């Protein structure tokens, strides 16, 4: 769960388009901004689907597994050495941008860039020094030593581009942030596709290196237009100025290490118990069940986190904000998840290839994870809104330890389908942990007045999952019926509590 948290954490309250917002926002407001911020996520999803399709067709499950194992190892090193600057710099730049002078902003940006360059070089040296061991830990073989030596450059580039993104977010250049995200995704697709076509698996390392260079160049092109590049590597003043930023980032870097470490352990153990094809199938199932659905949650965050930050000091408003977000999130997610469950046998071969059909049962079994997440994430943001890094690290550590043990164990005994169920159980555990701990620690209270709606949607979704897993094709009719019921329930509630439906009808009628 750490990836979505860290991405959200970088979108601090000062990064909202409209500035401060009313914490007592209406349902229309929530849905409106979900659509606004969901536009970029939609484009990213389309590019991601195209990239996954190309990788799946040209490289197969083994190739996808190698890419993911490289990616996990690189990100683990990056998050272990970057001091959390990509998160903590946002807050400090934003505060200076709002309250300081232009000269103070430029000076601190120079500090951020100095720290990022130095920690990036540190990460690169760590990867170079340990490339032989990393190859063995990851693949149980020394054959990939030179691969990690080359990819050490990517570790440095990730740190530098993280700092540039933090600068742009802190200075409220959200249009540039969106453009960079879209262009970066497109550039990666354009670079990787021909390399995979001509060199297949042998081209993976160079595709990662070249696409990393392209993405970094895009970051620097837009960020240096805002503030020209300046660093002071040998200045003691720069390092003393950056100490508060580093202190703030330590908690989140530790949580990031937990998360990346758990993903690294899961995939390496699956490789031990199975083979590269199994890792690739697990990755594709996880992508279908979790990664694509996560884009909806990312769309929520840009507006939700500022509202929660403004209301967390008032228990009544805090609870209202959280429970409202839970309701809207579930009403939007329940029909979408049911649709995914129904169409998964079609979507997996379409979005990946026919080689990945064995991942369908796992993806269906893991879909409960996202259903539970609709109840969990709005509450879990409280630790970030209150700046309570210890609580955040505690809940992340418990969750990451559980998945690092449960998923490989379930795969060993019950295969990919067992891994999917383990992920769903992890989602339920996280839900219970967050509700209990945050209820005691922060005074959060769940709104039980909507419980009938939640139970009905859960029953529909549960029936849809188990009928979708059934081999009898007639059972798919039941799954389809559950989709219709889920859609009708969500539609009626949204219609009664918002003006979104009537506004859409007016616009369509005018056209």
Describe this structure in words.
By secondary structure, the chain is mostly helical. It has one domain. 85% of the residues lie in helices and 0% in strands. The chain is built from 16 helices and no strands. It has helices spanning 2-9, 27-81, 85-99, 102-139, 145-170, 174-199, 204-226, 236-241, 243-273, 276-311, 315-351, 360-385, 389-442, 451-469, 475-497, 500-510. Mean pLDDT is 82; it is low at 4-24 and 33-38.
Topology:
Elements: H1 2-9, H2 27-81, H3 85-99, H4 102-139, H5 145-170, H6 174-199, H7 204-226, H8 236-241, H9 243-273, H10 276-311, H11 315-351, H12 360-385, H13 389-442, H14 451-469, H15 475-497, H16 500-510
Helix pairs in contact: 2-4, 2-5, 2-6, 2-9, 2-10, 2-11, 3-4, 3-5, 3-9, 4-5, 5-7, 6-7, 9-10, 9-13, 10-11, 10-12, 11-12, 11-14, 11-15, 12-13, 12-14, 14-15
